[in-house]
Amino acid sequence: FTFIKNYKIDPAKAENNTVEFSYVFSKDTQYFISVCDGKNDNPKMEITLMDSNKKVLASNVEKGTYYPGIAYKCTTTGIYYMAFN
Question: What is the model's pTM?
Answer without folding.
Answer: 0.85
